Amino acid sequence: MTLHEFLHLQHRFRWGGDGLCRDSVMHNDCTTFCASWVAELTGIDPARDLRGLYRTAEQAHGIIEASGGIVAFIGGRLEPVGFVRVTEPADGDIGVIVAPAGMDGDVKEIGAVRFGPLWSTLGPIGVVAKRCDFVAAWGLRA
């Protein structure tokens, strides 16, 4: 599946999403959305042990904080499957971006997938692509 095809799937936000595509809808949250893309690229799901483990924002944030924050959390999941930190993200790379998140519109650090000059992420209304600053990024490099 190409990145374009992945982003055009019907995605529905669900905390602790299982990443399975049922009735043409893939269920994820913003972090497992990135993990589902990684699974498409590598055949390895870096969130396999977390899927279905949590059901609320508070539980998700607890897991991330216990890992040392979102950058440490995502890096710790991506690096074992071959991703490296990059300073110039390319299409399909995973990043931590600073963007409005959730229904309250607060600015937060969230996981996203690079697509052209934009970062694509999953929120309550589905996949959204926007220009954002990134804090950290990882990619598969030869």
Total of domains: 1
Beta percentage is: 25-35%
Q: Which strand order does the major sheet show?
A: 4-9-5-6-7-8
Strand tally: 9
Query: H/E element string?
Result: HEEEHHHEEEEEE
Q: What coarse outline follows from CA principal-axis ratios? A: globular
**Spans where pLDDT lies below 50 across 5 or more residues:** none
In whole angstroms, how far apart are the ends?
20 Å
Task: Characterize the biggest β-sheet.
Answer: 6 strands, antiparallel
Mean pLDDT: 93
Descriptive keywords:
142 residues, alpha+beta, 4 helices
What's a concise summary of this model?
The chain is an alpha+beta fold and 142 residues long. The protein is 27% helix and 34% strand. A 6-stranded antiparallel β-sheet has the order 4-9-5-6-7-8.
Secondary structure topology:
Layout: H1 3-8, E1 10-13, E2 21-22, E3 25-28, H2 30-42, H3 57-66, H4 70-78, E4 83-85, E5 94-100, E6 107-115, E7 118-123, E8 126-130, E9 133-140
Parallel strand pairs: 1-3
Antiparallel strand pairs: 2-3, 4-9, 5-6, 5-9, 6-7, 7-8
